[in-house]
Amino acid sequence: MKTSGIFCGLASLALLMASGAAAGQAGAAAPPQPQLAILDTDIGDDIDDAFALALALESPEIRLLGINTAFGDTELRARMVDRYLGAAGRTGIPVNIGLPSKADNVFTQRAYAQLGPRRPHGDGVKFLLEQIQAHPGQITLIAIGPLGNVKAAIDRDPATFKKLKRVVMMGGSVYRGYDGAGGERRPADAEWNINRDPAAAQALFASGVPIFMMPLDSTQVHLGTAEREAMFAHGSPLTDQLTLLYHQWLAGTEGHPAAPTLFDPVAVTYAIRPDLCPATPMRIEVDAKGFTRPVEGKPNAEVCLKADEKGFLNLLLARTTGQPGR
């Protein structure tokens, strides 16, 4: 009887341990699913779009459904993205052409783009609306260029556009304008992405979609010599593209400082690490010249006015060079 009791006790203990292990496994947090995202970019003029795309590609928190090109020669921009993705081994991401527009600025990375493959591309506005319909309430649109595609989508189907989860954008200037050549702070400006198409920005801010805005106030982060050398010396297919594009950008126009300003990657960073750029609810009004002014009233955006620049640069370097914990 004593032996039988011991066996029964052991059996009960084993059952308890097994059930406890199962409960522990059930209670363990499942790994978070990557958020669905579409990147809308005017890549090819300034260099920061190339760094923003690199960060998006190397961030497991994001699953890029597609990349839409915006502003100017959108077809050539799409060829540039095709070449970039091919070199980085990421050819499975759809690339779509956004609305072309007049542009008088220099396409500094044109030589790189012209060697991109010639192939058919989809309609970026149609793609955006189709993806929203397929994934209502789930898609983050990361907008890092002028907002012509956004306005076209709103005009074409405002009800579907409103089913975006959110728009994370680089654009605008609340209290801080473009810094001077010596780094001096200047008052608010009509920022480039907004003043190229103020009506498009007005349409977005009136759309009712949650907006997370990264203005000049928080995005004038410079990639200094030490960080550039660490990234460019890494020698991966991705960082090799950044090295090549950086040098084309530097040679493409006069007056560029050696340290690029990483406006656009701050928007991608917010999408994955909002703690690095805390946002404040504000009501933003866009005027006809492209100024984005804070006004009284119900907030229509969450605005980051100051970023953790060191944390941002550490994240960018860690992701692009594959060195966690940097």
Walk me through this protein's architecture.
There is one protein chain. With 326 residues, the protein is an alpha/beta fold. It has one domain (35-321): Ribonucleoside hydrolase-like (Inosine-uridine Nucleoside N-ribohydrolase, Chain A, Alpha-Beta Complex). The protein contains 14 helices and ten strands. The chain has helices at residues 2-27, 48-57, 74-88, 110-114, 124-134, 148-156, 158-161, 192-195, 198-205, 216-219, 225-232, 237-252, 263-272, 309-321, and strands at 35-41, 62-69, 95-97, 122-123, 139-143, 166-170, 211-214, 279-286, 292-295, 301-304. It has a ten-stranded mixed sheet, with helices on both faces. Helix 2 links the parallel strand 1 and strand 2 (62-69). It is globular and about 50 Å long. The termini are far apart. The model is unreliable at 1-27 (pLDDT under 50).
Chart the SSEs and their pairings:
Layout: H1 2-27, E1 35-41, H2 48-57, E2 62-69, H3 74-88, E3 95-97, H4 110-114, E4 122-123, H5 124-134, E5 139-143, H6 148-156, H7 158-161, E6 166-170, H8 192-195, H9 198-205, E7 211-214, H10 216-219, H11 225-232, H12 237-252, H13 263-272, E8 279-286, E9 292-295, E10 301-304, H14 309-321
Parallel strand pairs: 1-2, 1-5, 2-3, 3-4, 5-6, 6-7, 7-10
Antiparallel strand pairs: 8-9, 8-10
